[in-house]
From TrEMBL:
One of its GO terms (molecular function) is kinase activity. This is histidine kinase. Gene3D superfamilies: 1.20.5.1930, Histidine kinase-like ATPase, C-terminal domain. It comes from Streptomyces polychromogenes. The lineage of its organism: Bacteria, Bacillati, Actinomycetota, Actinomycetes, Kitasatosporales. PANTHER family: NITRATE/NITRITE SENSOR PROTEIN NARX-RELATED, NITRATE_NITRITE SENSOR PROTEIN NARQ. The keyword tRNA processing does not apply.
Length: 462
């Protein structure tokens, strides 16, 4: 016995080392029971019962029609006519299944009750006829199979329970066997086995039907090519809004920090010598921060609301509204800034399209921020509207001497930049324009060209 025990222990050890896993009968039984009556199987049974309940109005309507066609016969008293009514109800179900709202209702029920991952199912109403017919096929299957399962659920459990308790009830045994119900093919002791087999078969049918619908749900209720395209367009629109908000934050906050830093530094250097300059610098700092806090508040409000449609309604500064203020706040830090403005024949910036005026303001703001952070010496700015090949264009040109890079041993913080110019290029691209930035002779130059549309036709006539 000791030797056998040792061999048995060694065999078990070898089995574990070799990765062999013994399957216990109890585990298999529990797994099989879970598949038949587990939590997921029960939820899928509820889903099937829901389909049977939804079929009832169609079945009642079909019974009225079948009864009238059969000469006023009571359909409920005839099993063949009931089956015919069920068959007639299926085309009615298929026709109503093409309505767009059928798919979202079905998807919601599938997600909650069948355990199908939500990312395999489509969102929203069916947009194309292909998606509608697939949803119709699902609707018909769900209600048709659900009706069969519902009928079995109503009929089989009472019969199975009667058969299980039959040997233990003399009155039942006498009535059933006395009437010849089972005497021809079964003995009383077999009835519990037959009853248990019927209940097991019902559970297996319900579990199988639920698994079948769960497998078909992604096929019939999954996203179509049109759904995927719509989702991609929605994601692209959301990304565009997020990018715009990011550009607004970068341009507004970045310029404000650059301007405030220079203004505060200039004020500190002349604090004892020029109190009037310090007073102007502090006023400019106050104005800059107040405006930036307002813009930051607007952007954060949009982010909190999560409504992309409101992004276009967000207030933003324009050339007509704040260009002079932007230039004045930049000069308040002691920066020498020469600006030449030529709005064209209109004489002012109010005639520019609103979106062009807004994006041009941000491009000028970003150019000034770059010049303040990375440049040295005076800044020259030129804004002019001109006509090129029959189309009006707004040209923005900004030049300034580049700053000398700090020595390698200098511990001063270096700014890598890059996002602002990329954002300026995106702004110009939205309008079909372009941005060029880089060394130009001994200076750094930023040049942007924004199209404004066809030039107005002018000329005299007789």
């Amino acid at each position: 016995m000791d030797g056998g025990g040792m061999d048995g222990g060694k065999g078990a050890a070898v089995g574990r080392a070799g990765g062999v896993r013994a399957v216990r009968p109890g585990a298999s039984l529990r797994r099989g029971t879970g598949l038949l009556v587990g939590a997921r199987a029960r939820l899928r049974w509820v889903h099937l019962i829901l389909g049977g309940a939804l079929l009832m109005p169609y079945l009642l309507l079909a019974q009225v029609g079948v009864g009238a066609a059969a000469g006023g016969v009571n359909v409920l008293a005839s099993f063949p006519l009931t089956l015919l009514s069920y068959a007639v109800s299926l085309p009615l179900i298929a026709v109503t299944g093409v309505f767009g709202l059928v798919r979202p209702l079905s998807v919601t029920a599938v997600r909650v009750l069948t355990g199908v991952p939500g990312d395999l199912l489509a969102d929203g109403p069916a947009r194309s006829w292909g998606a509608r017919w697939r949803a119709s096929a699902w609707w018909t299957l769900h209600l048709g199979i659900g009706a069969v399962v519902s009928g079995m659920t109503l009929a089989v459990p009472p019969l199975g329970l009667v058969l299980i308790v039959l040997p233990f009830s003399g009155a039942l045994r006498a009535s059933v066997w006395g009437a010849g119900g089972f005497g021809a093919w079964a003995e009383p002791w077999l009835s519990p086995l037959i009853g248990a087999a019927l209940l097991t078969a019902l559970a297996a049918v319900c579990a199988g039907a639920g698994a079948l619908l769960a497998r078909l749900a992604p096929v019939l209720l999954g996203p179509t090519a049109a759904d995927r395209l719509a989702a991609a367009e929605e994601r692209a629109a959301d990304l565009a809004v997020r990018n715009r908000l990011a550009r607004e934050l970068h341009d507004a906050v970045g310029h404000a920090l650059s301007a405030v830093t220079l203004q505060a530094g200039a004020a500190r250097r002349v604090l004892d010598r020029d109190p009037e300059f310090v007073r102007e610098a502090l006023a400019a700092i106050e104005e800059t921060t107040r405006r930036t806090v307002g813009e930051l508040d607007a952007v954060l409000g949009l982010l909190r609301d999560g409504d992309p449609a409101r992004a276009d309604a967000m207030p933003a500064p324009t050339l007509a509204g704040d260009l002079d203020g932007l230039l004045a706040r930049t000069r308040a830090g002691g920066t020498v800034l020469t600006a030449e403005q030529d709005p064209g024949p209109s004489g002012d910036w109010t005639q520019l399209p609103a979106i062009a005026s807004r994006e041009a303001y941000r491009i000028v703001q970003e150019g000034l921020s770059n010049a303040l952070r990375h440049g040295a010496g005076p800044i020259t700015l030129l804004l002019r509207v001109h006509t090129s090949e029959g189309h009006r264009e707004l040209e923005i040109t900004m030049t300034n001497p580049p700053a000398q890079p700090p020595p390698a041993h200098d511990g001063a913080r270096r700014t890598t930049g890059g996002r602002g110019l990329h954002g300026a290029a995106e702004r110009a691209a939205l309008l079909g324009g372009r941005v060029e930035a880089g060394p130009h002779g001994e200076h750094w130059r930023l040049r942007a060209v924004l199209p404004l549309g066809a030039a107005p036709v002018t000329g005299g006539g007789r």
